[in-house]
Amino acid sequence: MVLNFETEKLMQELKERKPKRVLIQLPEGIKQNAFDILKDIDSLGIEVIFSGETCWGGCAVSVDEAKNVGADLIIHFGHSEFIKVDFPVLYVEVKDELDLTPFLEKSVEGLKDFKTIGLSYAIQHKQDLESIINFYEEKGHKVIISGKKGVASYAGHVVGCEFSGLKIIEKEVDCFVIIGNNFHSMGAALAVSKPVFLVDVYNDSFTDMEEIRQKTLKERFVSIEKFKKSKKIGIIVESKVGQKFGSLDFLIKKFEDSDKEVIIITMNEVTSDKLMNFYNVESFVELGCPRIAVDDFSKYEKNIITFKEALVGLGLKTWEELLKEGVL
Q1: Residues 206, 179: Cα–Cα separation, whole Å
Q2: Which of 77, 94, 111 is the last residue of a domain?
Q3: Into how many domains does the chain fold?
Q4: pLDDT at residue 159, rounded to an integer
Q5: pLDDT digits (tens, 9 = 90+) for 242-283
Q6: How many angstroms separate the Cα of 145 from the Cα of each of 24, 118, 158, 161, 250?
Q7: Strand ranges inside 268-321, DSSP E
Q8: CA atoms 316, 320, 324, 328: torsion sign
Q9: Distance, C-alpha 80 to centroid of its chain
Q10: Is the separation of the CB atoms in 251 and 235 below 8 Å?
Q11: Do 62 and 133 have their domain in common?
Q12: Counting Cβ atoms within 10 Å, is residue 261 exposed (0-12), middle (13-18) or buried (19+)?
């Protein structure tokens, strides 16, 4: 992993904005680079505070945290802009400067039967888009990049909760190739019906996501069935400004009509320990990032489902409809 933090561009931007104190948000994988980042920004006479909270995506913008420490700017590394917030935020997308050719070569055999490829990438590989397309075209494939849709910042860009861009081109392609990691590719596999393949440059692997998709769907079906039998429900509302999925008022009304008892819980981050403290809650419905319930299935002793899955459990949507439109 060869990371380019675009330091010159960052320093120029800071000279123009002239903040006195900044809060820096780093994804888990680059918190180890904190001292290098500190050295550059500190040279401008700017006070630097690092957020120790998890930062899984551009949805996790720590506005309240920045206000609490008296910062006048958030520098958010590793993601593109997800939403507009009422606080100054500088996004530094971070480039991973790797020669992707050896990794792409591993995918050639597995893609030989697919003529047209739908291509999406994680943000750190945006600068490699043209070379990736050229690689596959030279191998005889037609390449169509996923559309810019919703919170995706660019054509071809994929994030963990937004797969509308893939759905736009699904009828035109034979399969999808995701240049990223399991987080992006599993989400894609749950969102579309065409085969999804992962080119994972960090684990040096090429993976057909179908087995993982089937395993995850079985887990989601089991979770919905458990929810149907539950009488005491906890609705989790995320306090992060970018993690608002589904209608709280709508669910409360439907639960009351179904004779389910409901409590509303706010959390900044969902953990198994926090859920267990509500020991008499039988199932939770999570209105934050849908990946919390889906990805961490084995981590929770308590049953937890998404807003869309709650609609299935309430009989407002069928399982088949959920699969057709995409679980995420």
Answers
A1: 10
A2: 94
A3: 3
A4: 87
A5: 667 778 899 999 998 898 999 999 988 888 999 999 999 999
A6: 32, 6, 10, 18, 36
A7: 283-286, 303-306
A8: positive
A9: 12
A10: yes
A11: no
A12: middle
Do 87 and 66 touch, CB atoms closer than 8 A? yes
- Of 208, 228, 258, the last residue of a domain is 208
Residues 82 and 146 in one domain: no
Find the CATH number of the domain harbouring 279. Answer: 3.40.50.11860
pLDDT tens digits along 196-248: 999 999 899 999 999 999 999 999 999 999 999 999 999 999 877 766 777 88
Structure tokens at 49: 């505070």
Rg, Å, the chain Cα set: 21
Q: Are residues 116 and 23 in the same domain?
A: no
The whole domain housing 89 covers 3-94
Distance CA 135, CA 116 (A): 13
Say yes or no: 159 and 198 in one domain: yes
